[in-house]
Amino acid sequence: MAAGVLTGDPVAGLKALSDEDGRQQELDGLSDRELLRTASREMLIAIGLVSDALRSQLPLLVQTKAMETATLLNGLTAGIRAAVDGLEQFHRLPERQVVP
Domain map of the chain by residue range? Predict the structure, then answer.
């Protein structure tokens, strides 16, 4: 959704996700703990990138696409909450034990 608001292309986000061939196998090999850390980290990176792009466009977007911008900001807020929750869970899960 963020990509669509920032680029004007409503399916840009779907295109970015569909270009992730092979990523599924990489994620399948991760433990729950590693997956939480990876997902939280990637979410925070994405939020940072969107925030950087949004900074210069915000005044125009608020004037021309107020509802879409509000939805984007709500999504960013939800993403931050999800990343924080994921990191908290990451720290609560035991590390994978390596068997010699």
Answer: 2-92
